[in-house]
Here is the input.
Amino acid sequence: MSERSPTFRVHVGGPLACFTRPEFKVERVSYEVLTPSAARGILEAIHWKPAIRWVVTRIHVLSPIKFIGFRRNEVNSRVSVTNILQAMKGTLFPSYFADEDRAQRNTVALRDVEYVIEAHFVRGEKWHDNDNVPKHADIFARRLEKGQTFHQPYLGCREFAASVEPADGPLKCRLPAEQRNKDLGWLLHDMEFGPPIRPRFFRARLEEGVIDIPPFEDAIGVISSGAGGKT
Here is the structure.
């Protein structure tokens, strides 16, 4: 039995996207392109089970890289996991009013984005005897074709909805000449779900509008100061 699925090509796009750089602590500033972790989230919105693990291998950047800046209202506080678990057990907490905890923050986002994700899945840690690669591959292909998702796919932030469809036929890259081949610097690959939980990065480069994604095991957990600052 094959250990991995065939490669799928998924076309995604939307009017706004924000793949937030982790080095900016308060304001949201997007990377120039879709990150592998965001691509994985889109694939999991279509089909995900504990039995499989998605592996993104290539990202095609089809539309020109354009930024837009605006302000958004965001809340300052975060709900802790501990409070949620206690609330599930019946613990009462003081009322929360978002209007009293709101602040305006700048966002530097991408606009009019369009990508094609190339990816496959492999066996996950919870693979069972009744699981098989052709079954999950057929489910994903059928759901993608019909536009079925477990939740609305999004482009970095949940309010930036993504359109998703199969990428059939030849791809048309509309990147201008100065954007087709460029060093994108350190790009977030994905999260290493520990313990501890930490991000992993890789050195990304556009080659004729295409980013080749290295294996997750080759990504690094800490960027040294000599490579552009510690993250």
User: Anything to note?
Assistant: The two ends are 41 Å apart (CA to CA). The chain has a mean pLDDT of 90.
